Amino acid sequence: MEEYKPPALPSPFNNTIPPPILLTQGAEAHLYKTTSLDPSIPAALKIRPSKPYRHPILDRRLTRQRIISEARCLAKLIREGVSVPALLALDWEGHGGPEGGWGGAWLMMEWIDGPVVRVVLEQWEAWMKQNEGSLDESQIENEEARVRGLLRKMGSAIGVLHKAGIVHGDLTTSNLMLRPSADAGDAVEGTGAPSLEGDVVLIDFGLASHSNQDEDRAVDLYVLERAIGSTHPRSEPLFEALITGYRDSYKGASSALKKLEDVRLRGRKRSMLG
Amino acid sequence: MIAIGMEGSANKLGIGIMLHPKDGSAPQVLANIRHTYVSPPGEGFLPKDTARHHRSWVVKLVKQALKEAKVSVDDVDCICFTKGPGMGAPLQSVVIAARMLSLLWGKELVGVNHCVGHIEMGRLITGATNPVVLYVSGGNTQVIAYSSQRYRIFGETLDMAVGNCLDRFARTLHISNDPAPGYNIEQLAKQGKQLVDLPYVVKGMDCSFSGILAAIDGLAKQWGLGGEEKAREDEQKTVDSITADESLEGKPTRADLCFSLQETVFSMLVEITERAMAHVGSKQVLIVGGVGSNERLQEMMGIMARDRGGSVYATDERFCIDNGIMIAQAGMLAYGTGFRTPLSESTCTQRFRTDEVFVKWRD
Amino acid sequence: MASSLETISVAHLPLMPVHVALYRDVQNAAFLKGQLLDGQAEFEYAFIDASMVLSRAQVIAAVFRAVNDYMHNRLKSHNVHSEIVFSLNPTNNISESFRRFGITDSTKDMLVVKVSVSPEITHESVAAHLDSSVQGTPVLFDDQTLSEMSDINKIKKAYKLGALPSPTAKKNDEAKQRLENSLLSSIALRGS
C-alpha cells in the first residue's frame, strides 16, 4: 500500500519558516501548529484540503461554504464573549503549492494551551483506579466533587454557546479544552491527583450551525452524554453536574433539557424503514 | 455444508447455492440465479406486481439452481431466506416458498438480514477483512463498521435511499428500467459535462436525498427535459449531436442532469464514508448493494481511499445486486454457530436494522 | 529625531517585510493625501487614521489579508497599499473604507504602512522618504501608544460592534481583547 502523504500546504504556508507541524488529520480537515502573524505567538492552522474525488466546481463550493460557516460561527461566539479560540485569518479560496493548483481553504486560530477534557478525564480516571485502595470515603467524595466542578463548568460553557444561538454539532470531550490559569500546576498539591482547574474552551466548529431549536441543543447534549458514557465510565454517573451547570447558564436551558429527555428515549435518530 | 439462499426483498428474485467445504477451504458458489421484475419506463415496481412475479418464478428458479449446482435435495443442509428489510409483499412470497421447501424437504430454516447478507458476500468475494461498508441500494443507504459482534450503523440516509433517488429520477426522464434504471442513468451520465447546482445535504455521517430529487425534478421540468417524448429523442440521437446542439447557452441536457445528480449524491456518499473511516481508523472500504456496481461511485471511492493510504473493494453486478448466494453465505455463517429459525418464527419484516443482528461468527 | 520606522517580518510572509511608522501631530496630512490621490508612485503608502486603530494585531491582520490577496491576484483596489486600508474595513465598500480608515486633511495621528513588494523597497528607502515627507512626531508603534490615539466609539461604530463593552484604560483588559478579537474576525471574514 502506498504511504500516505498529506497534500502540499496552500500558499502562503508553503513558505512558512519553520514549516507548520501536522497535528491531526480528520476526514475533513488537517490541523497544524504554526505561528500566528506574530512569530512569537503560536497559532492553530486548520486546512480543508481539496477533495480530488469530487467535481472541482462542487469541491470549491463545499470547501468554501464550510470554512466560511465555521469562521462565521467563531466570529459570532467571539463577539458574544463565549470562550472559543480567536479567529486570526481566513482564506476560503485556497491555493496549492508552487504549481498554483487548488490546495484547500484555511483558517487560522488562536492557539489554546492546555489539554482537551478527554485527556484530563482519562488521567483522573486512571489516577482514581490506581489510588482507589488508599482513599477513604471523604477523599473519594472530594475527588468526585472536583470532577463535578469541571462538568459544571463544561455545562455552563455549552449553555453560553447555545444562548449565543449556535449549536456545536459534534460535542465530544475532545472538542472541549481546559485552559489552565497561568500559575496553575498539573497536579493537586498534596494528593498528586491531576488538576481540573482552568477555563473551559470550546473548539472545532466544523459542524456547527446557527440554531435556536431545542431539538438541536438537546442533540448536542445527548451526543456529549453518549461520548462521556463510552469513553469516561467513571465520570458518567456525575453527568448530572453538567446538566446543573447548563441549567443555570441561560434562560431557555430548561426547555432544551426537557427535549433532552425525549432524545434520550428515542436516540439521536428516529427509527426508519429498511 | 450446502445452503440454498432465497432473496426477494425488492424486484429481484435470487436463488443461490453455496458450499462451505468441510475441510475449511474457501466457500464456493455452486449456483447464482436471478430473475428481475422490470417495470415499464416511467413506472416503479409495485409491491403486488413484484410479489406476483416472485411467486410465479420461485419454483422454476429453485429447480434451475439445483440443476446448475449439480446437487440433490439430500445434499442441502439448510434453507436461508431474507427476513428483511424490504418490501412486505415480495418478502412474504419468498418466505412462504422457503417455509414450504423446509417442510417438504425436512430442512432447517435460517432467517437472514438482507444487509448483513450483502456485507458477508462482499467480504467473501473481495477478501476485505474489516472494512468500513457502504451499503447503497434502492432501499438502503448506510455506512457500517463492525465492532464487538455487531455491524454498527455510523451513518445513514435521513429520508430516501440513494438508489431510490436515482430510480425515481430515471422515471422522471422516462429512462428504461431494463436492465436497471440506475445502470441507464450511469450510461447517460457519461455524456454529461455541465454540473448544475443541486442541494448537498450531509449532516455528520448522515445524509438526505429527498431535497436533491425535488430540485433535479424541478430542473428537468424547467428545461422541459422530462417525459416520454424527450426520452425517444435521446434514443435517436448520436452522442456527438447531443453534446453539440444542446450544451449551448447554459441549458443543461438530460445527460447533464444525470451527471450532476450522480456527482452530487456520490460525493455525499464518499464524504460520509470517509468520515466513518477516520472515526474508526479503518483504511479499507467495501461497497455493497446495487448502486455499488456504479463505476463512477467506485472510481470516486477509490480516489478517496487512495488519498487515505487505503483501498476500495467492490464487486460486480453478480454479487452487488441482490442475489441468493449472499443470503446463503450469511445464513450459513449463522447456521455454523448453531443459529436456526424455527418454523413458528419464520416471518419476515419490512423493518430490520443491520445492527439488530448478533454477529456470532466474527471475533 | 531619527526615524522610528519599524520593519516587521510577518510570519508566513518571509519574503515581504512590512514597514510601519506611527506619527503624532502630523502637520501635512492634506499634502500627503493629495500626493496619494494624484497617484504619485513614491507616495504609494497605506496612510491610516490612527484614531481608527485599536491595536497592532488589528493592523497586522489587515496587512496580512491584503498581502495574501495581493499574492493571489485578488486585489479589489489599485494596489496592495490601498488594499491595506480597504482590508481594515468590515464591508466591501472601498470608498467607505477610505472615508473611515484613510487620512483626512485634519488627521493628526497617522499610521503609515509600506510593504516590500519589490526589492527596491527597503527599510532604508522607506525611512528616508518618510523622513523627508512626513511632518510629524514619530512615536513607537505599540499598543500603549495606540490606545492613547484610538477612538473606541468610532471603531465600534465602524465595525458595527456597538453592543460590545468598551475597554477601560486598564492593561490586558478583557473587554479590549474581546473587541480586538471581534475586529480580527471582521477583517478575516470581509466579503465572505
Automatic annotation (TrEMBL), chain A:
Catalysed reactions, as listed in the record: L-threonyl-[protein] + ATP = O-phospho-L-threonyl-[protein] + ADP + H(+); L-seryl-[protein] + ATP = O-phospho-L-seryl-[protein] + ADP + H(+)
Single Gene Ontology BP annotation: tRNA threonylcarbamoyladenosine metabolic process
GO molecular function: ATP binding; hydrolase activity; protein serine/threonine kinase activity
Keywords: Activator, ATP-binding, Chromosome, Cytoplasm, Hydrolase, Kinase, Nucleotide-binding, Nucleus, Phosphoprotein, Serine/threonine-protein kinase, Telomere, Transcription, Transcription regulation, Transferase, tRNA processing
Protein function: Component of the EKC/KEOPS complex that is required for the formation of a threonylcarbamoyl group on adenosine at position 37 (t(6)A37) in tRNAs that read codons beginning with adenine. The complex is probably involved in the transfer of the threonylcarbamoyl moiety of threonylcarbamoyl-AMP (TC-AMP) to the N6 group of A37. BUD32 has ATPase activity in the context of the EKC/KEOPS complex and likely plays a supporting role to the catalytic subunit KAE1. The EKC/KEOPS complex also promotes both telomere uncapping and telomere elongation.
Residues annotated as domain Protein kinase: 17-274
Listed name of the protein: EKC/KEOPS complex subunit BUD32
Protein location: Chromosome, Telomere; Cytoplasm; Nucleus
Enzyme Commission number(s) from the entry: 2.7.11.1
Oxidoreductase in keyword set: no
Subunit (UniProt): Component of the EKC/KEOPS complex composed of at least BUD32, CGI121, GON7, KAE1 and PCC1; the whole complex dimerizes.
Family: Belongs to the protein kinase superfamily. BUD32 family.
Organism: Penicillium roqueforti (strain FM164)
Pfam families: Kdo
GO cellular component: chromosome, telomeric region; cytosol; EKC/KEOPS complex; nucleus
From TrEMBL, chain B:
Pfam families reported in the protein's UniProt record: TsaD (PF00814)
Note on cofactor: Binds 1 divalent metal cation per subunit.
CDD domains: ASKHA_NBD_OSGEP_like_euk
Residues the entry annotates as binding a divalent metal cation: 114, 118, 135, 322
Keywords (A to Z) from UniProt: Activator, Acyltransferase, Cytoplasm, Metal-binding, Nucleus, Transferase, tRNA processing
Gene Ontology BP, a term: tRNA threonylcarbamoyladenosine modification
Needed cofactors: a divalent metal cation
Catalytic activity reported: L-threonylcarbamoyladenylate + adenosine(37) in tRNA = N(6)-L-threonylcarbamoyladenosine(37) in tRNA + AMP + H(+)
GO cellular component terms, semicolon-separated: cytoplasm; EKC/KEOPS complex; nucleus
Top-level EC class: transferase
Keyword Transferase: yes
Domain Gcp-like: from-to ranges: 29-328
SUPFAM superfamilies, per database record: Actin-like ATPase domain
InterPro entries: ATPase_NBD, Gcp-like_dom, KAE1/TsaD, Kae1_archaea_euk
PANTHER family linked to this entry: TRNA N6-ADENOSINE THREONYLCARBAMOYLTRANSFERASE
Family as reported in the entry's similarity comment: Belongs to the KAE1 / TsaD family.
Official protein name in the record: N(6)-L-threonylcarbamoyladenine synthase
UniProtKB/TrEMBL annotation, chain C:
PANTHER family: CGI-121 FAMILY MEMBER, EKC_KEOPS COMPLEX SUBUNIT TPRKB
Keyword RNA-binding in record: no
Gene of this entry: cgi121
Keywords annotated in UniProt: Nucleus, tRNA processing
Function: Component of the EKC/KEOPS complex that is required for the formation of a threonylcarbamoyl group on adenosine at position 37 (t(6)A37) in tRNAs that read codons beginning with adenine. The complex is probably involved in the transfer of the threonylcarbamoyl moiety of threonylcarbamoyl-AMP (TC-AMP) to the N6 group of A37. CGI121 acts as an allosteric effector that regulates the t(6)A activity of the complex. The EKC/KEOPS complex also promotes both telomere uncapping and telomere elongation. The complex is required for efficient recruitment of transcriptional coactivators.
Gene Ontology CC: cytosol; EKC/KEOPS complex; nucleus
The protein, known as: EKC/KEOPS complex subunit CGI121
Record-linked Pfam families: CGI-121 (PF08617)
Organism from which the protein derives: Penicillium roqueforti (strain FM164)
Entry similarity comment: Belongs to the CGI121/TPRKB family.
Lineage: Eukaryota, Fungi, Dikarya, Ascomycota, Pezizomycotina
InterPro entries attached to this UniProt entry: CGI121/TPRKB, CGI121/TPRKB_sf
GO term, biological process aspect, one: tRNA threonylcarbamoyladenosine modification
Subcellular location, record wording: Nucleus
Domain of life: Eukaryota
